[in-house]
Amino acid sequence: MNTLVLSAHPNLATSTANRTWFDALSNTAGVTPRDLASVGGAEMHFDAAQEQSFLQTADRIVLQFPFYWYSSPPVLKAWLDQVLLFGFAYGPGGTQLHGKELGLAITTGGPAASFQSGAFNNFSMAEFLVPFQQTARMVGMTYLPPFVLHSAMSRDHSALNASIPALISYVTAPRHAIAAKATRSAG
Predict the structure, then answer these.
(1) In CATH, what number does 3-185 get?
(2) In 3-state terms, what secondary structure has residue 68?
(3) pTM, to two decimals
(4) Phi/psi at 136 (5° precision)
(5) 150: three-class secondary structure by DSSP
(6) What is the dihedral of CA 171, 69, 180, 174, to 10 degrees?
(7) Domain coordinates of the chain in residue numbers?
(8) Residue 185's pLDDT is what?
């Protein structure tokens, strides 16, 4: 299986968790990681044809990003807007992503317990991620349960280090082997 990981941290060099994940995935067979902030530059401009060629060769696409204000960083939204175009991803002839898998590898600053009804963030991660699930449906992809590392900004790096083998498995394992609950909690 060929997996494309699109990292959408606005400054991957300054990240602890997302950089650690990106580096680990860079050394994983069958995985092609791309740093979208580097590719798109400060203008967040993407060459649609080039990005689409990466998508066409992948069986699974994983969006890796820190959870910012209940969504993804702007660089990922820019990429989605410029690459998942009519006639390629949807609409007449827009079947290029049909049958592929979409996964999410997300880091949050808060603990898992804060992402539920009545807690600090009032909603579950599944509820916050509905737009990504619908995007997968819209373009004919199979949506995988997300892989989430909560409390990623913790100074205790043991949870981050422990998440690496699970993340690699999430990114590379066959769909049926991905656990229904792919969430990892650091606190």
Answers:
(1) 3.40.50.360
(2) strand
(3) 0.93
(4) -60, -45
(5) strand
(6) -20
(7) 3-185
(8) 44
